[in-house]
Amino acid sequence: MTRPQPTAEAIMRTGMGFQASKTLLSAVELGVFTELAVRPAGLVELRERLGLHPRGARDFLDALVALGFLRRVDDVYHNTEETAAHLDRAKPAYAHSGGMLDMANGRLYRIWADLTDSLRTGAAHDESADGDLDTYDALYADPVRLKQFLASMTGISHAANTRIARQVPWKDYGTVADLGTAQGDLVVQVLLANPHLSGIGFDLPAAAPVFEEYAAENGLRDRLAFVGGDFFTDDFPRADVITFGHVLHNWDLEKKKLLLRKAWDALPEGGAVIVYDSLVDDDRSENAFALLMSLTMLVVTDGGFGYTAAECTGWMAEAGFSRSWSEHLIGPDSIVIGIK
């Protein structure tokens, strides 16, 4: 019996995947889903509302139908349930999905184009590539790009943040400090779910206005404060729990270990450090999202990389934590908890 010949279908689907990706990202940028949330429309009307040239408009919109992001009924285009819920700028959920796609389109898509060079040289191709500033100083120097970046961090982290707010036994603690807090969604979700807690968000000073606006929107101005500083040169704020959400992957090994040592120093006896990331599985063969995120760290940071739960618990033990363990959160994200 002859064996079927292997096909190139999966290879080509992945190799040409950038076409589908950029089609969706451009649709978000152009406001396709927001316009259709206002009113479904036929080709000519929608083309005019979006400001599209006649040459590519029909193929673009029908490609979105074929990809499953739009429906076309009697030549009228509609959102799907998913795009109506998550990609309409007028809906709150846009901040958690569309915000991440805005950043991917405006920043990551172009940076990833230089992946081959980063693999050969180890050099990043982010905003710091052509200047003297490091990755985050360069990113935080532009207020518009900074706000987009901080909002995108909320988007990629929100589902895990809401899970952490309920999965960790917060009743045992009174205060929490979120290091590298960005817009502050992790500590915001923790405080919303645990009214007895008060919190601090710690990040570079330029993040303060975005953080404080988000805290006020969530009614937490009285329980949540921002502290500006550099967590490599300044002391950590003291709290019962210190959290790092999608933070450790940004740094090289020496800095990862330094952050955990500084967390140990800032915690009381019995306090906890909570680290979460898209952790690479121990066999390094299953969590493709985490491995691709590690490659993102290659192209956008000077030394960042993804890591496994076993590696993280080892670094915690080296920093002085008496015990540590990992738990799955949601999707590709997992948590590592260390107790002082």
UniProtKB/TrEMBL annotation:
A Pfam match is Dimerisation
GO molecular function list: O-methyltransferase activity; protein dimerization activity
Name the active site residues. H249 (proton acceptor)
Q: Which InterPro entries match?
A: COMT-like, COMT_C, COMT_dimerisation, SAM-dependent_MTases_sf, WH-like_DNA-bd_sf, WH_DNA-bd_sf
KW Iron (keyword) present: no
Claim: Oxidoreductase is one of the keywords in the record: no
Residues in O-methyltransferase C-terminal domain copies: 112-322
Q: Name all O-methyltransferase dimerisation domain ranges.
A: 16-83
A biological process (GO) annotation for this entry?
A: methylation
The entry's keywords: Methyltransferase, S-adenosyl-L-methionine, Transferase
- In Swiss-Prot or TrEMBL terms, this protein is called O-methyltransferase, family 2
Its source organism is Actinokineospora spheciospongiae
**The organism's lineage?**
Bacteria, Bacillati, Actinomycetota, Actinomycetes, Pseudonocardiales
